[in-house]
Amino acid sequence: MEKPLNRELVVAGSQSLPAFPRIVARIVETLNDPDANLNVLGSFIERDPVVAGHVLSQANIAGSLRYGGRTVSDVFTAISLVGLARVREVAVLASLSQVLSEPQTAQRPAYFWRHSVAVGVCAIELSHWTPAPVNVDTALIAGLLHDVGQLWLQRFRSGQFAQSRSDAIQRGVDITVTEREIFGVDHADIGAWIAESWGLTPEITTAIQCHHAPDAVATQPLVAVVHVAEVLSDALGLTYSDSDHVSTISTPCCETLGLDWGDGSHRLFGRIEARSRQAAALFD
């Protein structure tokens, strides 16, 4: 008989999941550090050839458009061409995309990563759109990792996890309902425990834990961004899931972000769809 899930068991099991990428950890560390040197981040990216390759590829695309085919061969020039924000975004996406090739996550890559990227992209665009104070890089990381608890369940409780998804479909309820019935906790709780064990900020941890049920903490802008990002990713058809999506949008979250879904929303939706296609290419 399987042991009931608790934080200690989840954290112990998470050690056999792919390690949290060092570059992403470094980006998290430097987000709110006013003394962080761009050279530090650039040199760190250079140490990972896969991530550096993606960053340089983006810079060369920008160079061909702006500078008549100029070839970029180093990360520091890339930063000057495409900007630190874009370099961070590409580095985070490329670094996490390497997890896709790990055998521990190969059981459920296709939908999971497409959905994670879509939510991450929605989170970026919402962060730009809202007047609420949200760090764009933090929003991307929280959006990408919001369902990391599902990776754990797929890895360690795959049969029961499949049952929870099937039950949610048949009964027409949120998957967190059936997860709690089977495991005693849901994937959002598990994801928060993993995020804490990785040393992610309380802000990111809370956003992961509350993305299905955000109302109690909806005044926290990052919580609101991740929740609304997941709803939008489904509403815009960026990914398809028969059971995992959040079907009801939180009014308090929309109020926190100042969203009224007026005529200007089509520009937001267009940017999300375009950027999703670009980001998904890193995972192909």
Distance between the termini: 38 Å
Main beta-sheet annotation: none
Q: What number of structural domains do the residues give?
A: 2
Proportion of residues in extended strands: under 5%
**What general form does the structure show?**
globular
What is the mean pLDDT? 80
Structural class determined from secondary elements: mainly alpha
List the secondary-structure elements in sequence, H or E: HHHHHHHHHHHHHHHH
Helical amount: 55-70%
Count of β-strands: 0
CATH architecture of the largest domain: Orthogonal Bundle
Question: What CATH first level of the largest domain would be assigned?
Answer: Mainly Alpha
Can you tell me the residue ranges where pLDDT is under 50 for at least 5 consecutive residues? none
CATH superfamily of the largest domain: Hypothetical protein af1432
Integer-rounded radius of gyration = 19 Å
Using the coordinates shown, work out and report the CATH topology of the largest domain.
Answer: Hypothetical protein af1432
Count of discrete alpha- or pi-helical segments spanning 4 or more residues? 16
